[in-house]
């Protein structure tokens, strides 16, 4: 089993950018969001459960999940968001553990947006949090998802604040939109994690 570094941060905090930088050093990435997409693909039992809950309107004409419609529902209805989280969480974790066992790297980056909210932080050997100003997150969300400010704020407020998340951090990456600064921080952490992983064996 590799040394597990859990990477988390608020929505639109720059997790993808940071993950890509770690991947440049050959570090395997286990991404909960990617797994979440795979488990609700067309024809999966999980998608059938979602359709049963939300109705066939939640599907695109192709039979695939209409992610934009589902996102709008769950970020405007807390109970629906809780139901979806409880439905997906165990299924995602089974696949995650499988990927952990299959890795022979010194360490892996485990990307988990809801690391603290789902009480998954105890599964990691080390926790890395990305710290991004809330204003920057809202602007990125509006641009990335083509949504209005109100929905962007709802999406942000559905998660822990940066201050609460940072309380759990062993390491912090400051994302101030400077790529050179991010690369330098990731390189330093990569060397640190290699050393920690070797010491843990």
TrEMBL record:
EC number: 2.7.1.24
Pathway: Cofactor biosynthesis; coenzyme A biosynthesis; CoA from (R)-pantothenate: step 5/5
Any matching Pfam family: CoaE
Gene3D superfamilies registered for this protein in UniProt: P-loop containing nucleotide triphosphate hydrolases (3.40.50.300)
Catalytic activity, reaction form: 3'-dephospho-CoA + ATP = ADP + CoA + H(+)
GO BP field: coenzyme A biosynthetic process
Binding site for ATP: 12-17
Signal peptide span: none
UniProt superkingdom: Bacteria
Listed InterPro entries: Depp_CoAkinase, P-loop_NTPase
Keyword tags: ATP-binding, Coenzyme A biosynthesis, Cytoplasm, Kinase, Nucleotide-binding, Transferase
NCBIfam families hit by this protein: dephospho-CoA kinase (TIGR00152)
PANTHER family (alphabetical): BIFUNCTIONAL COENZYME A SYNTHASE-RELATED, DEPHOSPHO-COA KINASE-RELATED
Function summary: Catalyzes the phosphorylation of the 3'-hydroxyl group of dephosphocoenzyme A to form coenzyme A.
Name of the protein: Dephospho-CoA kinase
């Amino acid at each position: 089993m590799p040394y597990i570094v859990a990477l988390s941060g608020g929505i639109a905090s720059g997790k993808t950018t940071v993950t890509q930088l770690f991947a440049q050093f050959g570090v395997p990435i286990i991404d909960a969001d990617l797994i979440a997409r795979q488990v609700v693909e067309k024809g999966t039992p999980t998608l059938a459960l979602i359709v049963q809950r939300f109705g066939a309107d939640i599907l695109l004409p192709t039979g695939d999940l209409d992610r934009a419609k589902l996102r709008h529902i769950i970020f405007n209805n807390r109970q629906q968001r809780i139901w979806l989280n409880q439905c997906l969480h165990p299924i995602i974790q089974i696949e995650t553990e499988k990927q952990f066992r299959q890795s022979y790297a010194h360490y892996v980056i485990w990307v988990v947006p809801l690391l603290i909210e789902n009480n998954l932080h105890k599964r990691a050997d080390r926790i890395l949090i990305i710290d991004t100003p809330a204003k920057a997150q809202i602007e990125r969300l509006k641009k990335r998802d083509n949504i209005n400010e109100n929905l962007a704020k709802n999406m942000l407020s559905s998660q822990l604040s940066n201050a609460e998340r940072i309380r759990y951090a062993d390491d912090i990456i400051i994302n101030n939109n400077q790529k050179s600064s991010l690369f330098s921080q990731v390189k330093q952490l990569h060397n640190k994690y290699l050393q920690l992983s070797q010491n843990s064996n």
